[in-house]
Amino acid sequence: MNSRVFKTKEDLAQSAAETLVQRIRAGARSIGLSGGSSPRRMYEILGSRFQEELRAIDLIWVLEDERCVPPEHEESNSRMIGRSLFAGGMATAHRFLRFRTELQEPPVIAREFERDWHHGSLQGLDVAVLGVGDDGHTASLFPGTDIFSVTSRVAAEVYVPKLEAWRVTLTLPVLEKAAFHLVIATGESKRPIIEQVKEGADLPIAQVVKVSGQTWWFLDEAASPG
Fold this sequence. Notes:
The two termini are 13 Å apart. The protein has one domain: Rossmann fold (3-Layer(aba) Sandwich), CATH 3.40.50.1360. Helix 1 crosses helix 2. Helix content is 31%, strand content 22%. A hairpin with a 4-residue loop joins strand 7 and strand 8. The protein has a 7-stranded parallel sheet, with helices on both faces. The protein is of the alpha/beta class. The longest helix is centred in the N-terminal third of the chain and has 17 residues, at 9-25. The protein has 8 helices and 10 strands.
């Protein structure tokens, strides 16, 4: 496991932002964005410190999963990204591929996302920024759900019983084929999951990163097994 451990979440966010910019300088143009709280500070840094440099580069930012809530709902991942990565406005050279939850029906949301993906001629993700849940999920690939049987789609809807809610998400084949995975995990609650991954547990996050591409884990000291 390639990993870096940071004393503070701020140090981690700064370094993660710098790493992503380095990948973009090296030619990455399609960037998968994780929701949740862990990457938010990194997005804020990208949207401020690196805003001018990135503005001139053709980029497509791809939301990896979404809760089926209105776009301006406080739990919306696209809202969070809009208020962090795009807080200063989105550059004309950039596109943001999001799940259009205003369409309301999860299957329709997923199909329209997939249509937008193909219209944009996307072949895959150059970088996937990933988070990790306390149960080992990443994006909306939750353990025990039927999302893992979806192998011929770019995106799909999934019902998550433990949350009693629908989600829409990029599928495992799309996420695992990203050329570079940047996994961010912070907090003591993530330490058991990191330990299980190191021991070979077949958790969703492990399935995503085991097949292809390069993976780096960015951990704070609380999440690191030591």
